[in-house]
From TrEMBL:
GO-annotated molecular function: thiosulfate-cyanide sulfurtransferase activity
Protein name, per record: Sulfurtransferase
Limits of the Rhodanese domain: 41-132, 162-275
SMART domains, alphabetized: RHOD
Highest taxon in the source lineage: Bacteria
């Protein structure tokens, strides 16, 4: 199984001997919460991808849509990456938006990419040095993507998956999933995709780090998620769905994808069905 995470002490040691490309994923929490930009510290020589800006498409009122393959290739090329680059992604929260960058890179065929488990807080606890500014790319590269199917699906594919063996797993909080708490984005209905299962992404974390594979397996089992059947992960806007998706892959799930538009798209479309918990 491809290694998807790297621990802070391992990263510190590798940085002494190998030329790694370190990327910081940034964004603001939905609903006007804490911004990633308040975390002003950066790992040494790291560069930034802002998912609220250049790291996403924001067309037709949608948020955090994945970049087209060519647009993402141009973006990472400007950061000096090539398909052979060994990449580590982290964020300032610990484990929040970095998996989204990981997922996007996997979708364009980037093989050597891992997420720093625990992010900036874990790095600091391990005694790692930080800088006040991110670095600029020394030179641009022509990045040649190799698009891979199966990493993302759209609303039509989710609709077609209803009432099949495919499981829709929603990473939002139980209150939002049940429809008992309003959505943080205006114009989005409350509730969830019919028949979906709720695995709140925070339950997969401890101290803002992904739990062990054994613990993750136990949580999925408790939530009645069959890891051997196809899984579509959803959330508010496609960010924390990637945490659930990564956790499922770590547990050995063979077929996991992310609904790119997630609940912001689904809940905004009156033509799509919505379910409320009893």
């Amino acid at each position: 199984m491809t290694i998807k995470l790297i621990e802070a002490d391992t990263l510190a040691e590798r940085l002494k001997h190998y030329p790694l490309a370190v990327l910081k994923a940034t964004m603001a929490l939905p609903g006007g919460g804490t911004s990633e930009h308040t975390h002003t510290e950066h790992l040494p020589d790291s560069q930034t991808i802002d998912l609220d800006n250049e790291g996403s498409r924001h067309k037709q009122g949608k948020v955090h849509q994945r970049l087209d393959t060519d647009d993402l290739a141009r973006l990472v090329g400007k950061l000096g990456l090539t398909p052979q680059s060994e990449v580590v992604v982290y964020d300032g929260f610990g484990m929040f938006c970095a998996p989204r960058i990981w997922w996007m890179l996997k979708a364009i065929g980037h093989d050597k990419v891992r997420v720093l488990n625990g992010g900036l807080p874990a790095w600091q606890r391990a005694g790692g040095l930080t800088n006040q500014q991110s670095k600029s790319a020394p030179f641009h590269q022509l990045y040649q993507p190799q698009p891979q199917k199966g990493w993302f699906v759209d609303s039509a594919e989710v609709l077609a998956a209803l009432n099949t063996e495919t499981q829709i797993v929603d990473a939002r909080s139980p209150a939002r999933f049940d429809g008992n708490e309003p959505e943080p984005r205006a114009g989005v209905r409350s509730g969830h995709i019919p028949g979906s299962l709720n695995v709140y992404y925070q339950e997969l974390l401890t101290d803002n780090r992904l739990r062990s594979a054994a613990e993750l397996n136990a949580i999925f089992d408790k939530k009645n998620v069959n890891l051997q059947q196809p899984i579509i992960c959803s959330c508010g806007s496609g960010i924390t769905a990637c945490i659930v998706g990564m956790a499922a892959l770590i547990c050995g799930a063979p077929k996991v994808t992310v609904y790119d538009g997630s609940w912001t798209e689904w809940g905004s479309d009156p033509a799509l069905p919505v379910e409320l918990s009893q």
